[in-house]
Amino acid sequence: MAALFTGKVLMANRERDEVETERELGRALENKVLLLYFGSGQCPRCRRFSPLLKDFFVRLTDEFYVERASQLVLVYVSRDETEEQQSAFLRTMPKRWLALPFGDGFKRELELRFAVSEVPTVVVLKPNGEVIAENAVEEIRRMGPACFRNWQEAAELVDRNFLLAEDFDELTLRSITDPFRRLKYKLDKKTEAKNRQRKEEGEESS
Q: Where is the Thioredoxin domain (predicted)?
């Protein structure tokens, strides 16, 4: 997904606007579902939807709600009329959001690439840049955070922390139980051999 923003800059949504470096961007976007939020702080429909999107994002990424943040990143693509309007809007949104700098020409490229004709629009992308949903606004309104599971499956994300823990547990379990399984197998073989020997001896004596 970082390839989409190669040579571009994104602003971190903090009190002091810090430009993400290319290395930081790669780390921020790798192996995650990306939401491109095309909106405006002045648009009435956006003003109704943005609090829902904020709650959606926070419930999936904030430690108050989840033990570990979901593999989710959001980039705000502004249609605000001034930089002050964009900044004022972003100050009301989660700090983990990223944003295109105000007036960045790449905004128009993204609008054309994803055929964005109205706001609010939320384009959902796989880590490789493929589109999962052209506009997930209604899906987010209807399902809330539950729809992330569908996106995660569609993106075939590798949840490394989960898989590593799962693999470790299986490996530990296997290493502990395998000797017992082998021992049981040997005992069964010995018992079977003894029974066969007794049976043969019984037949011979008769």
A: 1-142
